C-alpha cells in the first residue's frame, strides 16, 4: 500500500494551492501601488483553504529556494469576512511580529509557532487576541518571545550606542485563555516563571516542557484530573519530580527522555521508579525513557530472556517492571539505552538502536523537535543501508527527506541525511521508487547543495545525483542543477573528489539533450568554467579524469550549438587544444575528446575561417596518421578537414601546407581505416554529414561522409538505419551516385 500511496498524484487541492501561491498576483491578488498585495474584493475563502495556503506558504519559503516570500502575505488574511484561519503552523524566521499582528482578528483554534526566533513580546500581546478560541498552542523554540525592547531614557549619545535593551517580560500569564488544552513551551527562555504563567489554565490536557529545568513541579498536580500527556525531555529529574508524576493518574503519554550527550544528569532510573509508573499510571499507552542510564539491572535472567518466540505480552517482558502492565504499550522510547536490545519488549512500536524498525521509529518520533537525536538515528540508518539491506526502503526515504527539509540549516542532519540518501537511492533499490519520490530526493539534495558550502554535504549531494539517470531524471530542475554544479566548479579552492564528480555530472547533463538546453547552459558560463579547469590542470601538468571529462563536456555542449562553439574560440580554446596536444602526446582518450569538439566547431560555416591557419591545418593533417583510440582521432581530424575543404579552394588562405597535399593525406587516411570498426561516438543527427554529399567542390569530403554513413549503418544498423531514412539520406545518396565529379569508390560505397 505504501508503494501505491507514494506514487499517487497530488490532490487537486494541493496542486491549486501550490499554483496560487506561486502566482498570487495572477490568481487571488492584485498589486496596490506596485508593492502591496491585496485580495480581490469578490473573494471569500473558508478556513479549509486559508489554513492550507498559509501552511503551504511557510513550507515553500522554507524548502524551495526559487520561491520568493512576500512582505505583505499575512495581511491577505487580516479580515475574517473574506478569509478564515483556524489551524496554522508557522516556523523559523519566516514569521515576524507584524505577521502575527496582521491576523489578530482571526478566531484561531490551533497555532503552532516553531523556532520563530524573530518573535518578541509584541507577539505575546497578539496572542491575547486569540485567547477566547485557542485550544492548542506551541511556542517551541521561540526564544525571544518573552523579551521586549526597552528604550533607556537620558542622554542622546547613550541611545546611539545601545538603542534597545532586551528586557524579560515578567507579567504575562495565560489569564483568559479559557479553552487552551494543549500547550508546548519547549526550550522556553530561562527566567520565566512557568508556574505563574500556567496557573490560570483550568484544564490542561497536554503540556510539553522540553529543555526547561524546573526544580519545583508540584504545581502540575492542579491538572491531575485532566493531564493526559506530559513531556519533560532533558529535564534533570529528582525524587520530587517522580512523586509528582506518579500522582498524574490520567496520563496516557509520558516522556522523560533525555539527550545523554547534552550535559551531566544526576538522576538515574531505577526499577522502583518504573514500578511506580506502571502501578500508578494505569492509562499509560506511551512512555519514553530514551537516553537514561539504569542504576540497577531491570532485566530478567538472561536464560529466560532468550527463550521462546519474541513476544510483546507484558507477562513475558524482558524488562521486569513492565510485567505489571495491563496491556502492551503503543510506543516505548528506548533510544540509546541498553534495554532496546532485549528480546521481549511489551510495546507495538519501540524506538531504539537495535535494528532498522527501531531506528526508523526513532527518526519518526524525534525529527520535529529533536534534531540532535535525529541526526544520530539517521547515522544508524546510514550504516544499515550501507552494510545490510533496508527492508522498509520507502519509509526510510520518506523520513530522511522530511528530516532534511525540516532542518535545512542543521549541519549534522545535512551531513548524515545526505549520506543516507546516497545509499537509499542506489541501483539495488531503484525498482521500488516512484518518479514522485525520486523527484523529492532530487529537490532536497539541491536544497542541501544550496544551503551548505560544506565539503562533506557537497560531496554526498553530488554522489547522490550520480544515482539518477542523467539527464532524464534531472530535466525538471535542469537550470538549477547546472547552476549549482558550475558554482562548485568555480570556487577557488576545490576538493579533488568533488571536482571530479561535479565535472562528470556536468558532462552527463549536456549529453543527449536538446539544443535549447545546451544554449541555456552555455549562457551560464559552462564553456568558460570547463576551459578554466583545463587551464588549471595544464598548469599542474596533470591529465586526469577532470581534464578528460572537461573536454568531453565541451564536446557535448558544442554539438550542433554554434553559440557555444563560438564561445570556445573566443575564450582561447584553440590555444588550450594545442598546449594539451603538446603536453600529453600519448593521451588517446584526451585527443579523441578534443577532436570531437573541433569537429563540432568545424561544422559551423561562420567559424571555419578561424581554423584556417598554417599551424592548425598542419596539426589536423598530422593527426590523420594518429592510431589513437582506434580510428577515432584520425576520423575526427579528417571530419574537421572535410568541412574546411567543403568551403572550396578560394577559402584556402594559406601557402603551407598545400591544399592538394592535405587532400592526398585525407584519402590515404580514409583508405587505411577498417570499414567494420566499432565506434566510440554517438550521433544524434546525420545532418552535418549529409550536407557534404550533394557537392562537387571536394570529392574527398564526399568520400569521408559516405564512409562515415556506411560504417555506422553497417556496424549499428538498428540505431542508424532509421536515422538515415528519417533525415532524407537515401535520395541524397542516389543523386550522388549520378554525379560525374564523385569518385568511383565513393559511388560503390554509396550503392
TrEMBL record:
It holds the Pfam family LRR_Zer-1. SMART domains: ARM. One of its GO terms (cellular component) is Cul2-RING ubiquitin ligase complex. It comes from the Eukaryota. The keyword Repeat applies. Keywords: Acetylation, Leucine-rich repeat, Repeat, Ubl conjugation pathway. This is Protein zer-1 homolog. The lineage of its organism: Eukaryota, Metazoa, Chordata, Craniata, Vertebrata.
Amino acid at each position: 500500500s505504501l508503494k501505491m500511496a507514494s506514487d499517487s498524484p497530488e490532490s487537486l487541492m494541493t496542486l491549486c494551492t501550490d499554483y496560487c501561491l506561486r502566482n498570487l498576483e495572477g490568481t487571488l491578488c492584485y498589486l496596490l501601488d506596485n508593492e502591496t498585495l491585496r485580495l480581490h474584493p469578490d473573494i471569500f475563502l473558508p478556513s479549509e483553504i486559508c489554513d492550507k495556503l498559509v501552511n503551504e506558504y511557510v513550507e515553500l519559503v522554507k524548502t524551495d529556494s526559487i520561491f520568493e516570500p512576500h512582505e505583505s502575505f499575512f495581511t491577505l488574511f487580516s479580515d475574517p469576512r473574506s478569509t478564515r484561519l483556524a489551524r496554522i503552523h508557522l516556523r523559523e524566521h519566516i514569521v515576524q511580529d507584524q505577521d502575527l499582528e496582521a491576523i489578530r482578528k482571526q478566531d484561531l483554534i490551533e497555532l503552532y509557532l516553531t523556532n520563530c526566533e524573530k518573535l518578541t513580546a509584541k507577539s505575546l500581546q497578539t496572542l491575547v487576541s486569540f485567547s477566547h478560541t485557542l485550544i492548542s498552542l506551541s511556542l517551541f523554540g521561540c526564544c525571544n518571545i518573552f523579551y521586549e525592547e526597552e528604550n533607556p531614557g537620558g542622554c542622546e549619545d547613550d541611545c546611539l550606542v545601545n538603542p534597545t535593551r532586551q528586557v524579560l517580560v515578567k507579567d504575562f500569564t495565560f489569564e483568559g485563555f479559557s479553552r487552551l488544552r494543549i500547550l508546548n513551551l519547549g526550550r522556553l527562555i530561562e527566567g520565566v516563571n512557568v508556574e505563574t504563567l500556567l496557573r490560570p489554565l483550568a484544564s490542561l490536557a497536554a503540556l510539553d516542557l522540553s529543555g526547561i529545568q524546573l526544580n519545583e513541579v508540584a504545581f502540575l498536580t492542579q491538572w491531575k484530573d485532566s493531564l493526559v500527556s506530559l513531556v519533560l525531555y532533558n529535564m534533570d529529574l529528582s525524587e520530587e519530580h517522580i512523586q509528582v508524576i506518579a500522582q498524574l493518574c490520567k496520563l496516557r503519554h509520558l516522556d522523560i527522555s533525555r539527550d545523554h550527550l547534552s550535559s551531566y544528569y544526576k538522576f538515574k532510573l531505577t526499577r522502583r521508579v518504573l514500578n511506580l509508573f506502571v502501578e500508578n499510571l494505569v492509562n499509560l499507552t506511551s512512555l519514553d525513557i530514551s537516553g537514561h542510564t539504569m542504576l540497577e539491572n531491570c532485566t530478567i535472567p538472561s536464560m529466560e530472556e532468550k527463550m521462546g518466540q519474541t513476544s510483546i505480552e507484558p507477562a513475558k517482558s524482558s524488562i521486569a517492571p513492565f510485567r505489571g502492565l495491563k496491556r502492551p504499550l503503543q510506543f516505548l522510547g528506548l533510544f540509546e539505552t541498553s534495554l532496546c536490545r532485549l528480546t521481549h519488549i511489551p510495546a507495538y512500536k519501540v524506538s531504539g538502536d537495535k535494528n532498522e524498525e527501531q531506528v526508523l521509529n526513532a527518526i519518526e518520533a524525534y525529527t520535529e523537535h529533536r534534531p540532535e537525536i535525529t541526526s544520530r538515528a539517521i547515522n544508524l540508518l546510514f550504516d544499515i543501508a550501507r552494510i545490510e539491506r533496508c527492508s522498509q526502503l520507502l519509509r526510510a526515504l520518506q523520513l530522511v527527506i522530511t528530516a532534511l527539509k525540516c532542518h535545512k540549516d542543521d549541519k549534522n542532519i545535512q551531513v548524515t541525511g545526505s549520506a543516507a540518501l546516497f545509499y537509499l537511492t542506489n541501483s539495488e533499490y531503484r525498482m521500488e521508487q516512484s518518479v514522485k519520490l525520486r523527484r523529492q530526493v532530487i529537490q532536497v539534495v539541491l536544497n542541501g547543495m544550496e544551503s551548505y558550502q560544506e565539503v562533506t554535504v557537497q560531496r554526498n549531494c553530488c554522489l547522490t545525483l550520480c544515482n539518477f539517470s542523467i539527464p532524464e531524471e534531472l530535466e525538471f530542475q535542469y537550470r538549477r542543477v547546472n547552476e549549482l554544479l558550475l558554482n562548485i566548479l568555480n570556487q577557488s579552492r576545490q576538493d579533488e573528489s568533488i571536482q571530479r564528480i561535479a565535472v562528470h555530472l556536468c558532462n552527463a547533463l549536456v549529453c543527449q539533450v536538446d539544443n535549447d538546453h545546451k544554449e541555456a547552459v552555455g549562457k551560464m558560463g559552462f564553456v568558460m568554467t570547463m576551459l578554466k579547469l583545463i587551464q588549471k590542470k595544464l598548469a599542474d601538468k596533470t591529465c586526469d579524469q577532470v581534464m578528460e571529462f572537461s573536454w568531453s563536456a565541451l564536446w557535448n555542449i558544442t554539438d550542433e550549438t554554434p553559440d557555444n562553439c563560438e564561445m570556445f574560440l573566443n575564450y582561447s580554446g584553440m590555444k588550450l587544444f594545442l598546449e594539451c596536444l603538446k603536453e600529453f602526446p600519448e593521451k588517446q582518450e584526451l585527443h579523441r575528446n578534443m577532436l570531437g569538439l573541433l569537429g563540432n566547431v568545424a561544422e559551423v560555416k561562420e567559424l571555419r575561417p578561424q581554423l584556417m591557419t598554417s599551424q592548425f591545418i598542419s596539426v589536423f593533417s598530422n593527426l590523420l596518421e594518429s592510431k589513437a583510440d582506434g580510428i577515432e582521432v584520425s576520423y575526427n581530424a579528417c571530419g574537421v578537414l572535410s568541412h574546411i575543404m567543403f568551403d572550396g579552394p578560394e577559402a584556402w588562405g594559406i601557402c603551407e601546407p598545400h591544399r592538394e597535399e592535405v587532400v592526398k593525406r585525407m584519402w590515404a587516411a580514409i583508405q587505411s581505416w577498417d570499414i567494420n570498426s566499432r565506434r566510440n561516438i554517438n550521433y544524434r543527427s546525420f545532418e552535418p554529414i549529409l550536407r557534404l554529399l550533394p557537392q562537387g567542390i571536394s570529392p574527398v569530403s564526399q568520400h569521408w561522409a559516405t564512409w562515415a554513413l556506411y560504417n555506422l549503418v553497417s556496424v549499428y544498423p538498428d540505431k542508424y538505419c532509421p536515422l538515415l531514412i528519417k533525415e532524407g539520406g537515401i535520395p541524397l545518396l542516389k543523386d550522388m551516385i549520378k554525379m560525374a565529379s564523385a569518385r568511383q569508390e565513393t559511388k560503390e560505397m554509396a550503392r
